[in-house]
Amino acid sequence: MLLTVLLLLLIARLIELETAIALIRNADWRWMIACFVVVQLQVLLSAIRWQVTAVRLGQVLSVPHAVREYYLATLGNLSLPGGITGDAARVYRNRDAAGVGKSAQSVLIERLAGQLALLVVTLGGWVLWPLLMDSAAPELGEKMILTALLLLVALVLVFRLVVRFAPPSVANFMAELGPSLYCAWWADRQWLVQGALSLGVVATYLAVFAICALALQHPLPFVGVVTIVPLVLLSMVIPISIGGWGVREAVAASLWPVLGMSAEAGVASSVLYGVISLLATIPGALWAALRPSDDRCL
Hints:
L-PG_synthase/AglD; transmembrane; transmembrane helix; membrane; cell membrane; mainly alpha
């Protein structure tokens, strides 16, 4: 929480804060409504991905129940430190469907699919950068992609260490992830379903960011949406802030000038993205919190 505040204060000192605030105040509410709609599609696709994954692992989970739980989890991830608090709650709230182990596996595998899809899209934009942009790829983007890959390697190493040295219950849970991954992603050509859903979710992320820029009357060119925005979104994966706040704005401020746009426009777009993403999940989260969890299998 402290790091998030410090990052935001630092950004406020490095940019013309009044300009960024003016951009947000004058945002076109019609585009903001469009962002709200796209966020609903985003949650729906993510929830369906979770439901498909859970059913493949033997968990009883309906789409309506998955959607409500995903709203609640998303709100938690965006508003609490670490970025996974909402997912932990999703595991706990749905532990009765197939046990804590299967519930945790389905959530973990579903989130991993989303992060891998974002990484693939980011790498694709990076590879295409020389063809789409007039300038050389920024060093910051290279460092971010390298950091994401190193985190992925670290996860694999931690996985192997846990399987080898952890207590039997934890080691067994980790050892079962391999077969569960195969069942959820590869068996019966599930990679087609998982891939389509995950790329669809990433597309909604990009769309929300692009529409936020439109609302500020500083539209992003298509090349910016497919090259720079994925890097901004990838920064949110680094678990050092609350909901990516501060880190996301810093990266946007650094990369927007590559497009010939102001850092203030980048920060304003990022702030609007964060606010809308958070507010758009509140109604669905209240729906989940207030409704009894009695229709898991409907």
